[in-house]
Each structure stands twice: as structure tokens, then as C-alpha cells.
Amino acid sequence: MTGGLPRRRLLGLAGAGVALAGAGAAVGALTTDRPLEVANTAGLASAVPFHGEHQAGITTAAQDRMHFVAFDVKTTKREELVALLKEWTEAAVRMTNGQEAAEGGAVGGSLEAPPEDTGEALDLPASALTITIGFGPSLFDGRFGLADQRPPALIDLPHFPADDLDPKRSGGDLCVQACANDPQVAVHAIRNLARIGFGRVSVRWSQLGFGRTSSTTQAQATPRNMFGFKDGTRNVKAEETDTLRDHVWVSKEDGPDWLVGGTYLVARRIRMHIEIWDRTSLREQEEIVGRKKGTGAPLGQLAEFDEPDLHVKGNGGEPVIGVDAHIRLASHETLNGAKILRRGYNFTDGSDGLGHLDAGLFFIGFNRDSRTHFVPMQQALSTRDKMMEYVEHTGSGHFAVPPGVKEGGYWGDTLFR
Amino acid sequence: MFTTTFARSTLVVAASLSVLAACGGGSTTAAGGDGGPIAVEAGDTACKVARTSVNTGNVTFEVTNKGSKVTEFYLYAEGDRILGEVENIGPGLTRRLIVEVTDAGKLQTACKPGMVGDGIRADFTVTGEGRKSVDTNQKLADATKEYQRYVNSQADSLLAKTTEFVDAVKANKVEDAKALFPVARTYWERIEPVAESFGDLDPKIDGREEVIAEGQEFTGFHRLEKDLWTTGLVADSPTVADGLLTNVKEIVDKAKTVELTPLQLANGAKELLDEVATGKITGEEDRYSHTDLWDFRANVDGSQAAVAALRPVIQEKDAALLATLDTNFKALDDLLEKQRKGDGFKLYTELTDPEIKDLAAAVDALGEPISKVAEAVAK
Questions:
Q1: Are B27-131 and B135-378 in the same CATH fold?
Q2: What pLDDT, on the 0 to 100 scale, is given for residue B141?
Q3: Chain B residue with minimal CA distance to A221?
């Protein structure tokens, strides 16, 4: 395998144990192109398997960093699109393995040619990189003969009250979510996929996230969002396979067939007016969220993972978790049992020119049917959530996420076969 | 020793179980300030409260339904004023109620099997130091009265000017209506936090187009603003104008009867500046007429009026804060007055970027100390 050296330099690793584990696997990589390391939750630096029943990057333990991108497809030829998806898959397999985007890589090719890999991830470990693809509603408009394959649940999202969506941060024919424990590795992945796609796709918008705002496994601690509150305490976790089956994965009965084992991704760029929030009293902040800021305990309870009790009332018979509190409106108890796997990230995109940080939460949610899950939840939040005074939805996207890729397959092969 | 160790490890197991069983209704053992949680056994015919006398502070009840009917548990102050309740406790379930009891007194507990009737009552005694109510302070009482007078006067003017505006729209006097639009809104914007507290009226009167929920109609000031400045008055403009007046009348009546607490006053002063920072400084509020600076001025006026009413209290509790407020209000006033033009203000679109940036910075400078008024008032 020419130029197939693993991107990662073993000496760059911190722990000797990790280096040893890497060394054993690196030999494998040189000879059989197997993953350097296989791990789902362990090790911030290790590799996450690309192939499987479902795409990685959904129930994978939420990594710390994200680069999300939406593309417009520029080619009008179906075969060119399919060829691109194959090339992308190949590059994604390599990069999630901790290898360079293509053979030859950043420095192994001709001196007269631009390098195959952009190079900024040389010396960096796989960093649990996952790359996840989704297909937007507009991909099914007829250009590629997919009109009758559009899943009924892949709706154009309705307008929610107080939406202030920027078309330049919304929509897209395709999306790619790259998550990793090193921001440079996530950006490297998107950059190289975009480069491979020039001429066939063009970047419509992209978003960086610098810190996870949810946990997707029970072993992970709950992180905090830019309001300073623990976020995602009641998130759907990887271990809850029944909940995933019922609320996240598209089943055979749901259809269409090509999407079985897949899911739907909703992305929302939620700008937070953090300066205003910071001038709000602690009591009001806690009442808006419905949790204590320190412990994360639901109001009226003692510890973070105590169940919120929506039937407790305080002084004057007023509900302790208010009727307009965020966690009440977003709870499955008030949403017909609907649960969403959340995988959002904090962002700060510089400032807004008025002396305020352009900061917030890039919401990513995965659900089995956005019509019964995300839409009712967002409708409840947009109309009644007291938190809406402090947030503004400025970007939006809805994508069907195909099932996982089998060895030798490619992204979307169930759709394009 | 053995028993102690054993008990501790059981606690640890129980705690970690509740962490894992995120969906299983796990409960962590309470460490209440007054001897720990009070167990309540709620049966179909009995209501056994393990302790019936506590000190002031946080009181935690762990209510277990030992009966066959869905039950509720209440803690009542005198006159059956609810201090806390937990509803909908199914048979066999245990639920928690934490109540902050600030004053000593004779309370009552009640279980309500079947969730009906007066329930099974028992006396519950609270002893210890009480906390004096802030309402007793005469200065605070004066402050709320003075602000109430301000709200009343603004509400009267709001009704008068909205009536003129509506009349002009209905008479198809477009230029008159355009001139009256920012004037009528001035009185609205001065008392906006009070008006906003009446939930569904606010979006009908002041909702911006994108804020309207699907299936809801776009009405009120901003709908007429759009008509006047973009499309010209249309067939149903008079109907929208009538609706606006009806809603404004209703809100004026309500605003005059609302009873405000000093804390609400303090928070209102802050919310008015929040309005400026998120809506007016960005030119989003009056996107068709660009009369945002009228609203800006009015929000600042309203904030100033609330601070003025609270002035003696702030002076007493935190004189340095008052000095900062005065300085920063003046700085913002000076910047705003520079943008005067004729009877009113320059349009938002006539402002340069540095001017907008300076105004935003002045609002932030004032917003920080304003956010500390509530704490000073509550001291």
C-alpha cells in the first residue's frame, strides 16, 4: 500500500499505553488497511469504526468538537453524484481511521502536483472522528430521478414563531457532520471532502461547534451550554436500545426501504442573547430552564438525574416547574412521549458588530419522524418557552440520514442502487 | 461500626442507581436542614406525617401512596393558602415535595385520596425566626405607588394616541397615520413590560410578522406599519385598525389595575433595556418605517421612570449603584438627543454604523448596573 502510512505519528501520543495499543494496530493498518483502533466510547484519540448498521456520529459518545457543512449539488448528472459519494466514502473511511484523505497524502506525491491531502491533520490521531451524511429535501426534486424516493417524513420544516432564518445558513441538498475530539481533525475532514467535491458540489453554509452540549452515553458527564446550564441530562443515550428503536431509527414499517436503519437530522442554529441572559437574576434563569444552575437538579428535586416532577406546586399553587419552563415544554411527558437524540454544540462566531458575541447553540437532533417528534416540540417551545426571549433561530436544516455503510459499500448506496 | 459502614455503602449504591436509572424515577436521599426529609404515608383513609413540627427553612416531604386511589399531598398556610402540593401520586409511588417555609406559624398538611375534597387534615407547626417581608418597607410601598401613577398616565395617553392613529388609518389619511404611528407607540413602549405580562394581547398588538405562529393572523401596529410604508392601505386595514384599538383598550384597563411588586419594577427597568438591546438597536422592531429611535427613547424613558420611583430605596441600599445609574443614563441620553430631528428622531437607516455601535455600547453600559437594581431592592 503506497503512501498508506497512518497519519498519526506514534510519538505524538501522550500515554505509553495508548501508544502501544496504536502500535499493534498500526502494523495492521500497513498491511490490511484495518482501523488503527476500534473503540466506541473509550479513548479521546482512538478511531471509531466507520462501517456498521447505523452511521457513526449519532449514538457515538458525543465528541467535543464539530464542523457541520451543507452542500448544494451542482452537477445535474446522477452518475457524477454517485461517483462523488463513492469518493467521499473512501476518503471518510481513511480519515476516520486516522489516515490521510487519499493515498499519497500531504507529502507523498509528486513535487509538481498539489498534495492529495491538505496536511493540517498530519501528526494528529484519529481523535474519534466520525463523519455522517444526510440528504436534504431538495435532493429529491427530480434532478437525479429521486422524486418518488423522497420520504414523506422529510418535510420542509414549517415556520416556527420567532424564526429569523438566514437563507445563507439554511437548507442544502446534502449535509456532512464531522465530529472529533480535536477541532483541527474535524475541520480537516470537511475541508478535504469539500475539495474532493469541487465542480460537483459547493459549500452552501457551514458551522463550527467548540463544545458539546449533550451526552450520548451514560458514562459521559453532562456538559453545559452557553447559558451556563447543564444540557441534555434527559437525552437519549446509546445504551437505551429500546428507546433508540422507538424514537430514533427508521423502521421497515416506517419506510422507505432505502432509509431503514437511518434517521432524520434536524439542525438549528440558535443564537443566544447571552449578554441579556447574563443580566438576568439567578432565580429567573433557573425558572426559565426549570433546573438548578449548580447541580442541574430539576426544580423541586435534589440531584441532576432525579426525574422532573411536573405535578409539584409551590407557593400559591403555582407549578414549581413553570408552565413556560423549558424542560417542561421539551419533556416527553408533555409531547406524547416523543424523545429526540440531541447532539448539539456550543458556538461563538466572533461578534455581531454591535459589541455582542454571536454565540449560541447549534442544535442537532436525530429522530425517527420529525413530524411527530421535532416539529411538535419546536412548536411548543417557539410559542410558549420563556427562553425564547433570549434566543433566536437563525439557521435551519432537515436531512434524511441513510443507514450505515457495509464494507465495500458507499454512502447512499441503498438509495442509488 | 459495622452498621454505620453498611448504611453508608447502601446510600452510595442508592445514589448511583438513581443516576443510572435516569428514566426510572430514582430518588436521592435528602439531607434536609431540619432533620432530613419527612416521610408521609398517604393511605385511602389515613395521612401519616412522620414529624409535625419543624423550624423555618426548607422542608422536604417524601410522600408515599399506600392506598389504592391516586392521591395528592398539600401543605396549607392559614386560610388554606397553598404553600406547596404534589399531585397525581399513583398507588405505590413515592414523590417529593420541597417547600421553603419562611415564617413561623400554624400550618396544615392534607392528603387527598382520589384527589377530591378537603382531604385528611393535620396540624403542622413551624417555629423559629421569620424573614421580614420586603413589602413592609414604606419606601418600597411608595415606589410601587409612584410607578403605578406613571403606568396610569402612559396608559391614558396610549389610548388617546392610538385612537387618533386608528382614526387616521380608517379615514385613509396616510401621512397623518404615518406621523402618529411612532407617537402612539411611544406610550406603548414606555410601559411594555407591564403590557407584556398580559400574555396573548402582546403579540396581537405588537407582534412582528415573523413572530406570528402559523395559523395566527398578523395584526396590530406592525401590520398597519407594513401597510402604510410598503403596500399602501389595503381592504382590511380598517378592520385591523379596529382590532388594534379594541386590544389596546383591553390592555389599558388591565394595566391600570395590575399590582406591581418592587421586584417587578426593578426587573421591568431591566427588561426595557433588554428590549432596546435585542430589538431597537438592530432596527428589527420598525423594519418598514425605520422609526426605531422613537421606541428606543420610549424604552429608556420607561426604564428611567421605574428607577426614579425606586430612587429612595436604591439610595438607601446602594448609593454607589445609584450614582453609576445616573451617570450611564445621562451618557445614553446625550447620545440619543444627538439623533433628534424635527419633532422626533432620525430614521434607523440614517444612522451610521459607528453611531449604532456607540448607542449599543451605551445600552450595555447601562444594562449591567440596571441588572443589579433588583438585588438592591430585595436586600
A1: no
A2: 86
A3: B19
Cross-chain CB nearest to B28 (options A280, A303, A389): A303
Range of lowest pLDDT (A245-249, B57-61, B120-124, B325-329): B57-61
Residue to substitute from B28, B58, B60, B264, interface A, most A β-carbons within 10 A: B28
User: Model confidence at A7, in pLDDT bands (50, 70, 90)?
Assistant: low
A380/B contact by beta carbon, under 8 A: no
Q: Which CATH fold topology does B27-131 show?
A: Immunoglobulin-like (2.60.40)
Query: Nearest residue on chain B to A218, judged by CA atoms?
Result: B20
Give the three-state DSSP class for A228. coil
Q: Do B20 and A316 touch (CB under 8 A)?
A: no
Mean pLDDT computed over every residue of chain B: 86
Chain A residues touching residue B25 (CB < 8 angstroms): 307
Confidence of residue A23 (pLDDT cuts 50, 70, 90): very low
* Chain B neighbors of A382, CB-CB under 8 A: 213
When pLDDT is averaged across residues B55-69 and rounded to a whole number, the result is: 93
| Contact yes or no for B360 and A356 at CB 8 A | yes
The terminus-to-terminus CA distance of chain A in angstroms comes to 30
In whole angstroms, how far apart are CA B296 and each of A196, A282, B110, B304? Answer: 50, 27, 51, 12
**Residue A16 — very low, low, confident or very high, per pLDDT cuts 50/70/90?**
very low
| CB pairs < 8 Å spanning A and B | 124
DSSP at A394: E
> Could you say which DSSP state residue A19 is in?
H
Residue B135 has pLDDT above 70, yes or no: no
Complex ipTM, two decimals? 0.79
Position A334 scores a pLDDT of 94
Q: Do A306 and B374 touch (CB under 8 A)?
A: no
At the topology level of CATH, where does B135-378 sit? A middle domain of Talin 1 (1.20.1420)
Chain A residues with beta carbon closer than 8 angstroms to that of B267: 281, 284
Chain A residue closest to B85 (CA)? A313
pLDDT of residue B366: 96
- The order of strands in the sheet holding B38-42 is B47-49, B38-42, B57-65, B94-101
Flag whether residue A317 sits within 8 Å of chain B, measured between CB atoms.
yes
Q: How far is A62 from chain B (nearest CA, A)?
A: 18
pLDDT of A316 reads 86
The secondary structure of B98-135, three-state, reads EEEECCCEEEEEEECHHHCCCCEEEEEEEECCCCCCHH
Grid coordinates given for A246: 422507538
- Does the pLDDT value for residue B32 go beyond 50? no
Amino acid at B35: G
For residue B98, give the nearest of A279, A300, A383 by CB distance.
Answer: A300
- Helix residue ranges, H only, A198-349: 241-247, 274-278, 282-289, 326-329
Cβ neighbourhood burial of A177 (10 Å; 0-12, 13-18, 19+): buried
B1: pLDDT strictly greater than 50: no
Query: Which residue ranges make up each domain of chain B?
Result: 27-131, 135-378
pLDDT tens digit sequence for A49-95 = 999 999 999 999 999 999 999 999 999 999 999 999 999 999 999 99
Tens of pLDDT along B225-270? 999 999 999 999 999 999 999 999 999 999 888 888 888 899 999 9
pLDDT in tens, A240-258: 999 999 999 999 999 999 9
Question: How many other C-beta atoms can be found within 10 angstroms of the C-beta atom of residue A110?
Answer: 9
Q: Are A43 and A13 in contact (CB under 8 A)?
A: no
